[in-house]
Amino acid sequence: MAAHLTRPRAGCALHGALYAATAIDGVTPLVHATPGCGVQAGLWHGGGCSSGGAWPTSNLSEKHVVFGGASRLREQIKNTRGVVAGELTVVLTGCPAEMIGDDVAAMAQEARDAGDDIIDLATAGFRGSAYQGYAAFLEAAMAQAVAVAPRRTGLVNIFGPVPHQDGTWLAEIEELSRLIAGIGLTPNPVFGPFGGLDSLRASAHAELSVSVSPWSSAAVRALDARFGIPWIESAGLPVGAVATAALLAKIAAAAGEIDEAAARAFIDHERRREAYCLDRLLETLFRQGGPRAFALALPSLHASGIARFLIQTLGWAPAVIVLTDNPASDGRAALQDGLSAVHYSEDDDEIADLIRASAADIVFGSSLERIVADRLGTPLIECATPTNRLSLTTGFGGFRGSLALLEAIVTAAESK
């Protein structure tokens, strides 16, 4: 029998796919489910960068549950294409539509036969969390990609941060784009203001794909299988100069012809900036308690990178590390490589018990860890959703992310 989860911190698969679709200009999501499914997605936490709630839906009622909702979906597809100015429609199914067996694929095929650009995707909540919905959306989008133009030299696909589910997703994508551009390549972020449907389609023409999360692993492999686009995987976002420089070196080597001197100059410039700022914080960090034992409860996008930065750069020790998004077992080895006290849990009560038992001096997590941090009398650094921290421009990945993390540590410790 499956175990229940207490206060899970990720929405369902429908939410993850919906968040991804809404983060690509030119893509229109259409929710085939009851009104509550769309409402819940709009209300779910967005880490200060909410996904909102304006999207078409078939609004299934009891009548449709009894007699079927396929005809209602046919009507809504027609209405959506006539009213909403999107080039690609993605039909996302909720639990009711899949439980009653609506033939969504047939309705989508009818629309394609009529000349519409449309994808249908099974995203019922029982299929998993928002992270799994994001992964399913990416796979479906890559399956629709068509390479009709020559490879674009220097173009690098960026995948990993889950829009709206990862609280700092936009800042992380923009920092990764800045880093890739800094070594002389062209970033292709897909999601956010500098992505869009054109970027999604261009992913089939890229020279390289970079994945910084296990949830985008299948997508980069699909691009390789279909179009021969090589890929690089990172065990989460790199945090700080050491990890970021190592990832950029791999990207530069895989991308082929770049100006190596200019790339080295960019990396050295960023290294100096971190070293300069860190030197000026050492006295403050020592005065606040010196090396500490930390507890960390974060999804895989941030968990490993932040933990390694705290250990390797600050000399702190992990009391407990909890990855809260339950990544697949085949991706866990890389995530926990070289780390100790690693656990995997999506359950709020279990996570709180692990942190409480660790007797950590400082906690990195979401606002859900506020209670246990207060009971331990330790500072809490909010790095994940749900969070009260607004993070439109500042994430925790890359060169700049490590400085944001240091700022948060010093500020939180001073307030205690």
TrEMBL record:
Signal peptide segment: none
Entry-linked Gene3D superfamilies: Nitrogenase molybdenum iron protein domain (3.40.50.1980)
Superkingdom in the source lineage: Bacteria
UniProt cross-references to Pfam families, sorted A to Z: Oxidored_nitro
Domain Nitrogenase/oxidoreductase component: 12-412
PANTHER family, sorted: LIGHT-INDEPENDENT PROTOCHLOROPHYLLIDE REDUCTASE SUBUNIT B
Protein name: Nitrogenase component 1
The organism of origin for this protein: Rhodopseudomonas telluris
